[in-house]
Amino acid sequence: MTLKSMEPFGLALKDYYEGNLKAKVIIHRDDGYKDDYYISHCFRSPSEFSFIEKLAVSSCQGKVLDIGAGVGPHSLELQKMGLEVWAIDISSHACDIMKKRGVKNVQCAEVYELDESNFDTFLLMGRAIGFVEDLTGLKRFLNHSKKLLNLEGIILLDSFDVRTTTVPKHLAYHENNRQLGRYFGEINLQMEFKGKFGERFKLLFIDPQTLIRCAQEVKMSCEILFKEENGNFWPGSLL
Questions:
Q1: What is the chain written as a DSSP string?
Q2: Within its chain, how far is the Cα of 123 from the centroid?
Q3: By C-alpha distance, which of 126, 132, 133 is closest to 145?
Q4: 7-238 topology per CATH
Q5: What Å distances lie between residue 129 and 134, 152, 209, 214, CA to CA?
Q6: How far is CA 5 from the centre of its chain?
Q7: pLDDT one-digit tens code per residue, 193-230
Q8: What is the largest CA-CA distance in the chain?
Q9: Which of 67, 82, 209, 215 has an alpha carbon within 20 to 30 A of 97's alpha carbon?
Q10: End-to-end CA distance of the chain
Q11: What are the C-alpha distances in Å from 112 to residues 51, 90, 134?
Q12: Cα torsion at 80, 110, 5, 130 (round to 10°)?
Protein backbone atom coordinates (compact mmCIF):
# COMPACT_ATOMS: atom_id res chain seq x y z
CA MET A 1 0.00 0.00 0.00
CA THR A 2 1.35 3.40 -1.02
CA LEU A 3 1.03 6.13 1.61
CA LYS A 4 0.33 9.81 1.05
CA SER A 5 3.43 11.59 -0.21
CA MET A 6 4.64 13.05 3.10
CA GLU A 7 3.40 10.27 5.40
CA PRO A 8 6.77 8.43 5.50
CA PHE A 9 8.39 11.66 6.67
CA GLY A 10 5.74 12.15 9.34
CA LEU A 11 6.20 8.58 10.56
CA ALA A 12 9.95 9.16 10.78
CA LEU A 13 9.39 12.33 12.83
CA LYS A 14 7.18 10.34 15.21
CA ASP A 15 9.75 7.55 15.41
CA TYR A 16 12.50 10.00 16.34
CA TYR A 17 10.35 11.82 18.88
CA GLU A 18 9.55 8.50 20.54
CA GLY A 19 13.23 7.70 20.99
CA ASN A 20 14.79 6.38 17.78
CA LEU A 21 17.57 8.95 17.39
CA LYS A 22 18.76 7.24 14.19
CA ALA A 23 15.41 7.62 12.41
CA LYS A 24 15.71 8.48 8.74
CA VAL A 25 13.83 8.55 5.46
CA ILE A 26 15.24 7.42 2.14
CA ILE A 27 14.57 9.93 -0.62
CA HIS A 28 14.22 8.42 -4.10
CA ARG A 29 14.49 10.63 -7.18
CA ASP A 30 12.77 9.46 -10.35
CA ASP A 31 16.09 8.83 -12.14
CA GLY A 32 17.11 6.21 -9.56
CA TYR A 33 19.26 8.43 -7.35
CA LYS A 34 18.57 8.03 -3.64
CA ASP A 35 19.78 9.68 -0.45
CA ASP A 36 19.33 9.21 3.30
CA TYR A 37 17.86 12.08 5.33
CA TYR A 38 18.37 11.81 9.09
CA ILE A 39 15.47 13.22 11.11
CA SER A 40 17.68 14.57 13.90
CA HIS A 41 18.20 17.66 11.72
CA CYS A 42 14.52 18.56 12.14
CA PHE A 43 14.95 18.76 15.93
CA ARG A 44 17.99 21.05 15.92
CA SER A 45 18.26 23.76 18.54
CA PRO A 46 18.54 27.50 17.76
CA SER A 47 22.29 27.28 18.36
CA GLU A 48 22.42 24.79 15.49
CA PHE A 49 20.50 27.00 13.04
CA SER A 50 22.39 27.92 9.88
CA PHE A 51 23.44 31.52 9.36
CA ILE A 52 20.56 31.92 6.91
CA GLU A 53 18.06 30.60 9.47
CA LYS A 54 19.33 32.95 12.15
CA LEU A 55 19.04 35.90 9.77
CA ALA A 56 15.51 34.94 8.79
CA VAL A 57 14.27 34.41 12.35
CA SER A 58 15.73 37.73 13.48
CA SER A 59 14.03 39.48 10.54
CA CYS A 60 10.51 38.25 11.36
CA GLN A 61 8.08 40.90 12.51
CA GLY A 62 4.55 41.12 13.87
CA LYS A 63 2.20 38.20 13.33
CA VAL A 64 4.14 35.33 11.73
CA LEU A 65 2.95 32.36 9.68
CA ASP A 66 5.49 29.52 9.75
CA ILE A 67 4.70 27.48 6.62
CA GLY A 68 5.89 23.88 6.51
CA ALA A 69 6.84 24.30 10.15
CA GLY A 70 7.82 20.66 10.72
CA VAL A 71 8.30 20.07 14.44
CA GLY A 72 8.45 23.80 15.12
CA PRO A 73 12.11 24.77 15.72
CA HIS A 74 11.61 28.24 14.28
CA SER A 75 8.13 28.76 15.76
CA LEU A 76 9.43 27.95 19.24
CA GLU A 77 12.25 30.45 18.89
CA LEU A 78 9.90 33.15 17.57
CA GLN A 79 7.55 32.57 20.52
CA LYS A 80 10.50 33.12 22.86
CA MET A 81 11.08 36.43 21.07
CA GLY A 82 7.53 37.45 21.97
CA LEU A 83 6.03 37.25 18.48
CA GLU A 84 2.58 35.87 17.68
CA VAL A 85 3.24 32.75 15.63
CA TRP A 86 0.94 30.47 13.67
CA ALA A 87 2.52 27.20 12.53
CA ILE A 88 1.11 25.05 9.74
CA ASP A 89 2.18 21.72 8.28
CA ILE A 90 0.39 19.07 6.24
CA SER A 91 1.76 16.27 8.42
CA SER A 92 -0.51 15.39 11.34
CA HIS A 93 2.46 13.75 13.05
CA ALA A 94 4.49 16.96 12.79
CA CYS A 95 1.58 18.99 14.14
CA ASP A 96 1.09 16.64 17.10
CA ILE A 97 4.78 16.92 17.97
CA MET A 98 4.70 20.72 17.67
CA LYS A 99 1.85 20.91 20.16
CA LYS A 100 3.69 18.64 22.59
CA ARG A 101 6.81 20.79 22.25
CA GLY A 102 4.90 23.92 23.16
CA VAL A 103 3.97 25.64 19.89
CA LYS A 104 0.80 27.53 20.79
CA ASN A 105 -1.03 27.97 17.47
CA VAL A 106 -0.80 24.88 15.27
CA GLN A 107 -2.96 23.95 12.30
CA CYS A 108 -2.67 20.86 10.12
CA ALA A 109 -3.38 22.48 6.78
CA GLU A 110 -2.05 23.83 3.52
CA VAL A 111 -1.66 27.58 3.25
CA TYR A 112 -4.59 27.65 0.79
CA GLU A 113 -6.92 26.30 3.50
CA LEU A 114 -6.24 28.94 6.13
CA ASP A 115 -9.00 31.01 7.65
CA GLU A 116 -6.51 33.29 9.44
CA SER A 117 -5.20 36.45 7.77
CA ASN A 118 -3.50 39.77 8.52
CA PHE A 119 -0.03 38.27 8.82
CA ASP A 120 3.02 40.50 8.81
CA THR A 121 5.53 37.77 7.93
CA PHE A 122 5.48 34.48 6.06
CA LEU A 123 8.41 32.26 7.04
CA LEU A 124 9.37 29.27 4.87
CA MET A 125 12.61 27.69 6.06
CA GLY A 126 14.22 24.39 5.17
CA ARG A 127 13.46 25.15 1.50
CA ALA A 128 9.78 24.77 2.34
CA ILE A 129 8.92 26.88 -0.73
CA GLY A 130 9.49 23.64 -2.64
CA PHE A 131 5.89 22.62 -1.88
CA VAL A 132 4.69 24.84 -4.76
CA GLU A 133 6.08 22.14 -7.14
CA ASP A 134 6.75 24.32 -10.21
CA LEU A 135 6.86 27.91 -11.47
CA THR A 136 3.11 28.03 -12.02
CA GLY A 137 2.63 26.88 -8.44
CA LEU A 138 5.09 29.51 -7.21
CA LYS A 139 3.13 32.32 -8.83
CA ARG A 140 -0.12 30.87 -7.45
CA PHE A 141 1.39 30.94 -3.95
CA LEU A 142 2.68 34.50 -4.30
CA ASN A 143 -0.71 35.71 -5.52
CA HIS A 144 -2.49 33.89 -2.69
CA SER A 145 -0.14 35.40 -0.12
CA LYS A 146 -1.54 38.83 -0.92
CA LYS A 147 -4.86 37.71 0.60
CA LEU A 148 -3.24 36.73 3.90
CA LEU A 149 -0.47 39.30 4.33
CA ASN A 150 -0.87 42.88 5.51
CA LEU A 151 0.00 45.65 3.08
CA GLU A 152 3.63 45.87 4.19
CA GLY A 153 3.92 42.14 4.83
CA ILE A 154 7.04 40.21 3.90
CA ILE A 155 7.87 36.69 2.78
CA LEU A 156 11.11 35.21 4.05
CA LEU A 157 12.26 31.99 2.42
CA ASP A 158 15.34 30.02 1.53
CA SER A 159 16.03 27.84 -1.46
CA PHE A 160 18.87 26.28 -3.41
CA ASP A 161 20.23 27.12 -6.86
CA VAL A 162 20.78 23.64 -8.32
CA ARG A 163 23.04 25.03 -11.05
CA THR A 164 25.86 25.29 -8.50
CA THR A 165 26.26 21.51 -8.25
CA THR A 166 29.26 19.79 -9.80
CA VAL A 167 27.86 16.25 -9.41
CA PRO A 168 27.50 14.72 -12.91
CA LYS A 169 24.33 12.75 -12.02
CA HIS A 170 22.61 15.91 -10.77
CA LEU A 171 23.76 17.94 -13.77
CA ALA A 172 22.38 15.27 -16.09
CA TYR A 173 19.04 15.33 -14.25
CA HIS A 174 18.73 19.12 -14.60
CA GLU A 175 19.68 18.97 -18.27
CA ASN A 176 17.04 16.29 -18.88
CA ASN A 177 14.47 18.64 -17.33
CA ARG A 178 15.47 21.33 -19.81
CA GLN A 179 15.18 18.93 -22.73
CA LEU A 180 11.69 17.96 -21.57
CA GLY A 181 10.69 21.63 -21.47
CA ARG A 182 10.64 21.85 -17.68
CA TYR A 183 12.32 24.31 -15.37
CA PHE A 184 15.63 22.76 -14.34
CA GLY A 185 14.86 23.04 -10.61
CA GLU A 186 11.79 20.79 -10.64
CA ILE A 187 12.55 17.53 -8.84
CA ASN A 188 10.36 14.39 -8.77
CA LEU A 189 10.72 12.44 -5.53
CA GLN A 190 9.35 9.61 -3.42
CA MET A 191 10.00 9.01 0.29
CA GLU A 192 10.54 5.70 2.02
CA PHE A 193 10.45 4.90 5.74
CA LYS A 194 11.15 1.35 6.97
CA GLY A 195 10.09 -0.11 3.64
CA LYS A 196 6.92 1.99 3.37
CA PHE A 197 6.72 4.24 0.31
CA GLY A 198 4.79 7.46 -0.16
CA GLU A 199 3.25 8.69 -3.38
CA ARG A 200 5.54 10.52 -5.77
CA PHE A 201 5.58 14.30 -5.51
CA LYS A 202 7.41 17.31 -6.92
CA LEU A 203 9.63 19.85 -5.21
CA LEU A 204 10.78 23.16 -6.62
CA PHE A 205 14.29 24.47 -6.11
CA ILE A 206 14.26 28.02 -7.40
CA ASP A 207 17.25 30.08 -8.49
CA PRO A 208 17.47 33.76 -7.43
CA GLN A 209 17.00 35.28 -10.88
CA THR A 210 13.92 33.21 -11.66
CA LEU A 211 12.43 33.99 -8.26
CA ILE A 212 12.87 37.72 -8.86
CA ARG A 213 11.24 37.41 -12.29
CA CYS A 214 8.27 35.42 -10.96
CA ALA A 215 7.76 37.97 -8.17
CA GLN A 216 7.78 40.81 -10.67
CA GLU A 217 5.22 39.00 -12.83
CA VAL A 218 2.75 39.03 -9.92
CA LYS A 219 3.53 42.67 -9.01
CA MET A 220 5.80 41.90 -6.05
CA SER A 221 9.36 42.96 -5.41
CA CYS A 222 12.08 40.55 -4.34
CA GLU A 223 15.50 41.24 -2.88
CA ILE A 224 18.18 38.58 -2.42
CA LEU A 225 19.48 39.34 1.04
CA PHE A 226 22.16 36.68 1.39
CA LYS A 227 23.72 34.04 -0.88
CA GLU A 228 26.21 31.31 -0.09
CA GLU A 229 28.77 29.89 -2.49
CA ASN A 230 27.20 26.43 -2.21
CA GLY A 231 23.97 27.67 -3.81
CA ASN A 232 21.84 28.29 -0.71
CA PHE A 233 20.25 31.72 -0.67
CA TRP A 234 17.85 33.76 1.37
CA PRO A 235 15.55 36.27 -0.34
CA GLY A 236 12.88 38.48 1.11
CA SER A 237 9.82 39.20 -1.00
CA LEU A 238 8.05 42.43 -0.16
CA LEU A 239 4.49 43.21 -1.23
A1: -PBPTTHHHHHHHHHHHTT-TT-EEEEEETTS-EEEEEGGGGG--GGG--HHHHHHHHH--SEEEEET-TT-HHHHHHHHTT-EEEEEES-HHHHHHHHHHT-SEEEES-GGG-----EEEEEE-TTGGGGG-SHHHHHHHHHHHHHHEEEEEEEEE-EE-GGG---HHHHHHHHHHHHTTS-TTEEEEEEEETTEEBPPEEEE---HHHHHHHHHHTT-EEEEEEE-TTSEEEEEEE-
A2: 9
A3: 132
A4: Rossmann fold (3.40.50)
A5: 10, 20, 15, 13
A6: 15
A7: 999 999 999 999 999 999 999 999 999 999 888 888 77
A8: 49
A9: 82
A10: 43
A11: 30, 11, 16
A12: -70
Query: What residue type is 31 in one-letter code?
Result: D
Name the CA radius of gyration of the chain, rounded.
Answer: 17
Rounded Cα–Cα distance for residues 164 and 177 (Å)? 16
Q: How confident is the model at residue 115 (pLDDT cuts 50, 70, 90)?
A: confident
Residue 126 Ramachandran class (φ > 0 left, ψ -120 to 50 alpha, else beta): left
pLDDT in tens, 66-77: 999 999 999 999
Per-chain mean pLDDT for the chain? 95
The pLDDT of 126-130, averaged and rounded, is 96
b/e burial code for range 87-118 (CB count within 10 A of at least 16 → b): bbbbbebbbbbbeeeebebbbbeebeebeeee
